[in-house]
Each structure stands twice: as C-alpha cells, then as structure tokens.
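Record type: ASSEMBLY
Status: queued
Input:
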Amino acid sequence: MGNADLRQLAVLEDVAFDDLDGDVVAVDAHNWLYRYLTTTAKFTNDNVYTTSEGEEVHNLIGVVQGLPKFFENDLTPIFVFDGGVTELKEAEIEERREKREEYEERLEEALEAGEAVEAAKLEARTQRLTDVIHETTRDLLDLLDVPVVEAPAEGEAQASHMARVDDDVDYVGSEDYDTLLLGAPYTLRQLTSKGNPELMDFEATLEEHDLTWEQLVDVGILCGTDYNDGLSGYGPKTAVKAVREHGDLWGVLEAEDAYIEYADRIRAMFLDPDVTDDYDVDLDVSPDLSAAESYVTEEWEIPADEVERGFQRIRDATEQAGLDEWM
DNA sequence: CACTTAAA
DNA sequence: TTTAAGTGG
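Status: finished
Output:
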C-alpha cells in the first residue's frame, strides 16, 4: 500500500558525487531534517542535546553534519521549507499524531520501567519538527549563507516546480517518490547516506512505461498516495496496466465501479500544486563560519565536539573552493 | 521508507 | 508474480 510502490516503476541510476560538481539541488527541508533527527537521536542520550532551557535542538547537529557533503562536492543546496499545511493532508497528519501519541505513551512506560534501550528507540520515533527546530535551522542556514526558499504550501511541490522551470536548479533532493508525480525532472535520493546518491529520472520513467505525466499520477493515485488509500488489489503493475487500458483514472474507476474521494483534487495536488516563482536566491555561497559556530555552541549550548568536525569540513571545502578560483 | 514474510 | 501487512528505523 502506498508511495513506495512507485519505486518499482521509477527509473533509477547510481551517480557519483563527482557528476554533481557545480550543480544546484532544491532540497525538501522537512524531509532532509527528519532524516537527521531520526538518525542522530537514535543511539544517543537526548540530554546532550537539550539546552538549559529544555529546548531540543539536535537539528543543529544534523545541519552541521549534513551540510559538508554539499560543500565538499560543490553541490549547491537550496533548502525549501513548507508553508501552510494542505487540507487534504489532514488525514495523514492526524494519523501520524495518533501514532506519535502511542509511542509517547510507550516511551513513558519504558522510562518508568528503566528500559533504556527501548526508551531510546521510542524516543527516535517521537521526534517532531517543532517551531524551534524550524527557526533555528533557518537561522543557522542564514549564517552559513545557504539559500532558503519558503514554499506557499508543500515544500516538495515547490522544490519540484523549481527543478522543472528554473534553469538554475538541476535536481530536487528528497527521499520521497512523490517528486516523480510532481514532475520533478531529476530527483536525487540518498544525499544523506554513506554511498552514492541515486538519481530518479522523470522522463525516462514515463518512457519506460509509455505513460503521460497525467497517467503516471493516476497510477500513483490507484496505488495510494499521501492523500488517499488507493484501490484494493492495485499495486504498480496492475495500476499501469489498467491506466493504459482505460486511458485515465476515470476510465479505471468506471470499469471497476469504484470511487476515490477527492480524486480530482488529489490529481491537481500533483499536476497543478500551489507553488510560487516569487523567490530569489543567491547561489554564491560564502558562509560566516565563526558566527555559525558560536550560534550553535554558545547560543544553543551544543557541545563543541559534536560540531567541530562538521564546521572544519565546511571550512576546508570553502577554502579549497576559494583556491580553485585562482587556478 | 526499506525490508521481510504471508497470502493469493 | 504481485499485493498485503507487519516491523524496524
């Protein structure tokens, strides 16, 4: 059930970071941050990351650890933040809220029982992107001179739009497969993990399955998206076959005598989302490292040794870039 | 979301 | 072979 089904349809290829030299990637900030929050908090005691005022800002560590990869490979990120929440996504958000509450209950029980390992695991699952996390992330990115764009609605949709129409933007950076439905020409996955990034090719995917963009969206809706459950019995194979046979979603639904609530609106969420061209970013990035470092270690009381390495890597990479300009 | 396993 | 459902992260 759901979005990962798209992986089976997507045309993916491994790329080397070397191939991305000088390119620009619009990163879905929420997606990227979430990745770091759930991994950096995993095996550690959260006390380390809590300030004297009780704010949990381990996102700052994630940002410092995650950014060097971009600098070192001369891949310029534009972080795209979410704006308002989409009405149709309320159901999913409600579901997540319920799960989180369940985990939080279990977490309390584990803490009372003194089960540290269990507690740490549950802790990772209760991570949420608070306002403080968003604000401090923006502040730090600002000090590091990393371009930021505020999306009117979904960050993913905005990033995909930018990759589609802005000549300066080469890829979307996201782990989600939705960017395929949003028409992002190229999506880079696994930018946070150890190995090579994975490149997802939109046009090649359409060609591979002989589908139009609209038809691919219809396939996605049949399998299930963030906004709907999909049709029972429909996975990627069956959905592609059915859409090709009946032309579009409406044809399939008629043939199956089925109904998907808000299908037309869900379709529009992918084909014509709420996005803007009203942004401007300076892609010439020159970070103020000492300001950034004191922001993280002094203002937010992150232990210096947690971020030293990351800052040093950024320093080395930017100095190297400065040298390159003279050669 | 990735991976595994069960079921059809 | 394809989907469904569960688990861990």
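Annotation: The mean pLDDT of chain A is 89.
Annotation: Residues 2-4, 7, 175-177 of chain A lie near DNA strand B (CB under 10 Å from a C1').
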